């Protein structure tokens, strides 16, 4: 068995193992809004980015502002149904119940990338120019994971959603966000309320995914 020098390492890995996806959420919080904000702020500030470009942008929506996001998303889908882009039956039986389940949560963290802020560094390091956009997406994903982990450590359940680009325009308008903030993902959270969650998870054998040499 591996022995760690620092007990925090075991604690961290235990948190990693227990982070799961929860869809059944209620609009309650085990911690203060300030504590939630601190988790998000630390995850924005201290997660690394390539060349320290700090391209991630984040918006924390709580309670009514969170509901506003999912109402806005429902409206966008109703427009798609009316225009014939989404079948009404599919919307009513599948999409709407999902969106209402998100709305029943306590908050949503919106994660964005400011790709435009990379213009100067792309010119300066032309040889890496095509790498900066994917690096920025990787960096914002790290923040998503950290917020997800920390919220669940505090007793929340969360799920990660991607309703971009469908809701981009409405989101920017609703919270008056800079045009250069490109929406990447939405992390929905609340107190878990479905005893059957988390669902059982299958793992591919680690041997097919990991190798070690020189041990
Ligand atoms: C990059 C990424 C994108 C994901 N996108 C979605 C999504 O759009 N909708 C969703 O319900 N879950 C999404 N998930 C959640 C995964 O389906 C989920 O994490 C995976 O099935 C493992 O389950 P677990 O989170 O319970 O460990 C995403 C997860 C990752 C890492």
UniProtKB/TrEMBL annotation:
CDD domains listed in its UniProt record: Frm2-like
Record-level GO cellular component terms: cytoplasm; nucleus
Swiss-Prot/TrEMBL GO biological process terms: cellular response to oxidative stress
InterPro entries membership: Frm2/Hbn1, Nitroreductase, Nitroreductase-like
Every Nitroreductase domain range: 16-190
UniProt KW keywords: Cytoplasm, Nucleus, Oxidoreductase
Protein localization: Cytoplasm; Nucleus
Highest taxon listed in the record's lineage: Eukaryota
GO MF annotation: an example: oxidoreductase activity
Entry's family note: Belongs to the nitroreductase family.
Protein name: Nitroreductase domain-containing protein
